Amino acid sequence: MNTKELIAKDLLKIRAVFFRPDEPFIWASGIKSPVYCDNRLTLTAPEVRNDVENSLAAVIREKYPEAEVLMGTSTAGIAHAAITGHIMGLPMGYVRSGAKDHGRQNRIEGRLEAGQKVVVVEDLISTGGSVIEVVEALREAGAEVLGVVSIFTYGMKKGLERLAAANVENTSLTDFDVIAKVAAEEGYIAPEDVERLIKFRNDPSDESWIAK
Questions:
Q1: Total-model pTM
Q2: Counting runs of H as helices and runs of E as strands, what totals does the chain give?
Q3: Which sign does the torsion angle of CA 200, 201, 202, 206 carry?
């Protein structure tokens, strides 16, 4: 079993990724979605957490062996950066969504020296906006951002285009297409639902995938 399928099975098992194509969830943006994702649930499932953190470490070792610091995204990526950093013996910190309004008014927490090689740890990537902001904050602080590693990505066109335009490389442990395939194979959804899910992934604003 490859990593993408292993993590897909793990996330489905603990309902960190949950498909409900016939009763869509509604995102804050108003978009109707057949999928709910909460990777924080991996933290309370030790076996799954072990798979996730060891897989993140393996990706970083393979793709970015020169990494010197791991930086988590606030707040969901912080724990994953901390645990993966512990496994790898690397320092970690995190980047706030905005600067603190008190104390030293830090946006980047943890020691970061100009020129250090950084890998960003994120839990989920959809449109890519929040992780790009994190990368830009680190670049402004003088870091060399090698890339982003994340647990799950939707693989949406908008997100892929934004990451490419910002010159940000992301590697996810698993993705929407693999999880949809595994969900059908394991009986979480009907096989005929996969095509509907991929249609959502291709264009979230097009609601033609919703069963009438």
A1: 0.93
A2: 7, 10
A3: positive
Contact 14, 45 (CB under 8 A): yes
- DSSP three-state, residue 121: strand
Alpha-carbon distance 81 to 208, whole Å? 38
In the chain, % helix, strand, coil (3-state, to 5) comes to 40, 20, 35
**What does the pLDDT look like over 48-84, one tens digit per residue?**
999 999 999 999 999 999 999 999 999 999 999 999 9
The residues near 101 (Cβ < 8 Å, ≥ 6 apart) are none
CA dihedral over 84, 63, 179, 26, signed as positive or negative: positive
According to DSSP, residue 146 is labeled E
DSSP readout, 188-211?
Answer: SS-TTHHHHHHHHHH-TT-GGGS-
pLDDT digits (tens, 9 = 90+) for 88-136: 999 999 999 765 454 445 789 999 999 999 999 999 998 899 999 999 9
Beta bridge partners of 153: 125, 175
Cα-Cα-Cα-Cα dihedral sign, residues 116, 71, 124, 62 = positive
Phi and psi at residue 73, to the nearest 5° = -90, 145
The answer to whether residues 112 and 143 touch, using CB atoms and an 8 Å cutoff, is: yes
Q: Rounded to whole angstroms, how far apart are CA atoms 13 and 106?
A: 38
